[in-house]
Structures
1.
Amino acid sequence: MSSTASKPDVVVLDYGSGNVRSAVRALERAGADVELTADLRRAMDADGLVVPGVGAFAAVARALREVHGDRAVERRLAGGRPVLGICVGLQVMFEASTEPGAGDAEGLGEWPGTAERLPAPVVPHMGWSTVEAPAGSVLFEGIADERFYFVHSYGVQRWEMVDTTGGRMTPPLVTWAEHGAPFVAAVENGPLSATQFHPEKSGDAGAELLRNWVRSLRSA
Ligand SMILES: NC(=O)CC[C@H](N)C(=O)O
């Protein structure tokens, strides 16, 4: 996909998150022209916006708001323009986290729900896990049986969004994984997608997932 001089294919939002460089490299390998920036105009104009995230939920939510990343996400979604959250970038698309220090830190609340500590004997969940992807998933096309790399202690363990439109709303596609309990591994909800795992650290399967997302930008 070749971007015009006026805009990149993908902007990775540069707001101090720790995994931006690896995300940029992985997206470039997926065939996208990528720009790392916090410039809101560039973030709005790009075909896709990636919101990476590592570290504490509250710090990520605060840093995102400090560059008005919340505004970029909301305006893009209002216009049906694709956004991909990664790791804490998935968690902050929900309402909250019970992570210490999160206190009353609010996520963007694009989906109802809370990230809660995984009830497993060993936390963080650090390693490769398989996922249960629903039929029709675009992100997991051709890779639904693969394993992906996770590094997290919190996860959204209940999907709380309900369809109040009587079936007129296209239901979100929720992919699950398990570590002590089932948790949301990925969501595809119209223009908003997110993964709890790190596709940029998930080898060939992660690279294919990013290629699937970059290809979907063409039809957005
Ligand atoms: N990989 C991370 O940065 C961890 C994210 C989050 N603090 C969690 O433990 O779930």
2.
Amino acid sequence: MDIGTPNLGYERLRAQNFEKRGPGDLKEGFYLCRELAPNHLAVKAGKFSQGENKYPAEIRDPTRFRAVVNDYHTLMTYLSWEIFRILALTLDLREDWFDEFCRESATILRLLRYPPQETEESSLERGIGAHTDFGGLTILLQDDKGGLQVWDREGSRWADVVPIPGALVVNLGNMMMRWTNDRYISNLHRVINRSGEERYSAPFFFSGNPDFLVECIPSCKGQAEAAKYPPITVQEWMLARYADTYGNSQQAEAMAELSRDTEDAIVVDRNID
Ligand SMILES: O=C(O)CCC(=O)C(=O)O
Ligand SMILES: [Fe+2]
């Protein structure tokens, strides 16, 4: 099974290419969104990451697989809300300031496998090329193989994110940067799996309600200061970012197709409202 619209199911090795200089990212994965019935309004309207899940047929116990990934998805959704409440307080906002954004959020759980790769420093081979995450925030579960690195801006060097058993890594996404006028940064990171073994990870992406308009938070700029980024909806932002990183692939065409569909779908949805 290969990935299709809307961004769900199996994704083959090298389908995504973040740095564009190499042959494509050396990872494969399975994408799942929150489980929704096919007749749910958001699914019918073709909202970003609000499709019908595809589940792998080859799995030994499909019922258990489905229950486990859906439970994990639900837990991560609750945890994201909690983190957004804390973020609100750190920005001198009311605790529930992000609630509207969090409601009916687009979320994706990616189950990733990174084959081991050559260790030469000069190689352009990446498990996942240097990038920042696109959405609101990411909660990452990684195994014990290591390989995740974050860009240390002050030291101008890549720093290893050494796995700690039971710990989750939380990353802010580009949307938070737009929203806070760069007060909060979405940090650059990448994966190079030099462990000699397969590496598994499960990032959970919380992007917010597709219809939500992200515009500079008033408390994040001075009165005379201009907003650095124009307002944009979550849906528009996310589709554009995905299309950027799937250059020339079947996925790019699928995403372009989805963009066109969603333009229509947004109109349909407004009519329903
Ligand atoms: O696998 C990892 O540790 C990181 C994955 C990641 O950065 C991503 O999928 O955006
Ligand atoms: Fe990432």
